[in-house]
Design goal:
Elements (H helix, E strand, L loop, with lengths): L9 E2 L8 H10 L4 E6 L11 H12 L4 E7 L13 H21 L3 E4 L10 H21 L3 E5 L12 H11 L4 E6 H6 L4 H8 L3 E5 L18 H10 L5 E3 L7 H4 L1 H12 L4
Parallel strand pairs: 1-2, 2-3, 3-4, 4-5, 5-6, 6-7, 7-8
Helix pairs in contact: 2-3, 3-4, 4-5, 5-7
Length: 276
């Protein structure tokens, strides 16, 4: 298998109740080389993070042999929604992602992760779809001026009423038409939608540029072994399709993960290593 353990990032998902330095120390100690950073308060709240603070994060990572590959601002639990029909919310959300693109440049992160937002449940879907596509196009255009690539992730239906599967993701990315806009394959969103790894690559090809590799039942964003998804099948398919990007364990499962996140990360790494 050509997939390598070095492709698996360290990430601060589930570390939100611990000092950020604890996460960096754990990532380095667990042999990670690359990071996906969750932009969440109090650690990396995008509206409050200055350029100087972002550069300090980059230096703190580099002193531990780590580099930042992806910045993922919190955008589901926070009041962030690029498809909102409320003008101030939509405009503020676009501004937040423009700022996040600037922070990517300071962090040395080549990827900025976006999600499609959602419209009101009782309005025509196409109206919200248009707002989302316009906003993502604007963000991607600005990110391109900074040398940053954006990656768009499909969400579960409870999170978005716009892009929930590979076909919708391919349609949205195709309509926007930005050369620096790729796709995220999230195994939980994929499983809940009834999609497959091959289906994602059939629809999106080399636009799949980032992977969230998490267990579920099928939902849950669980550590591997806490759910029922077929890890070996996923890795085999990613390898067969020539995937060469990073993979992240995006852990949002039981509350106990956040009490002591390192054991959950260790179990994920232990589950993956024998399959590579």
């Amino acid at each position: 298998m050509s997939l390598s353990i070095t492709q698996f990032t360290g990430s601060n998902f589930s570390y939100q109740h611990l000092p950020f330095e604890r996460f960096l120390d754990d990532a380095a100690d667990l042999g990670r080389e690359h990071l996906e950073l969750w932009g969440v308060a109090p650690q990396l709240h995008v509206p409050e993070l200055s350029d100087a603070e972002a550069r300090a994060v980059r230096r703190a990572a580099e002193t531990r042999g780590l580099s930042v590959r992806c910045l993922t601002p919190e955008q589901v639990m926070y009041p962030v929604n690029v498809a909102s029909p409320v003008p101030w919310l939509r405009e503020g959300s676009v501004a937040l992602f423009r700022r996040a693109a600037e922070l990517c440049a300071e962090l040395g992160a080549g990827l900025l992760l976006l999600t499609p937002g959602r419209g009101f449940e009782d309005e025509p879907v196409e109206a919200a779809w248009r707002r989302s596509a316009d906003a993502i196009g604007e963000i991607a255009g600005y990110a391109a001026t900074l040398g940053v690539t954006c990656v768009l992730e499909a969400l579960q239906r409870v999170e978005s009423n716009l892009v929930n599967d590979a076909a919708g993701l391919a349609r949205m990315i195709g309509e926007i038409g930005a050369p620096n806009l790729g796709a995220v394959l999230d195994t939980v969103a994929m499983a809940t939608a009834g999609d497959t790894v091959d289906g994602y690559f059939d629809a999106l090809g080399d636009r799949v540029r980032h992977v969230h590799l998490v267990d579920g039942r099928p939902a849950g964003h669980l550590a591997w072994g806490d759910g029922e998804l077929p890890l070996a099948e996923y890795l085999e398919a990613l390898d067969r399709r020539g995937y060469a990007g990073c993979l992240t364990f995006e852990l949002f499962g039981p509350g106990t993960y956040a009490f002591d996140p390192r054991p959950a990360v260790e179990r994920c790494l232990s589950a993956v290593r024998p399959l590579l």
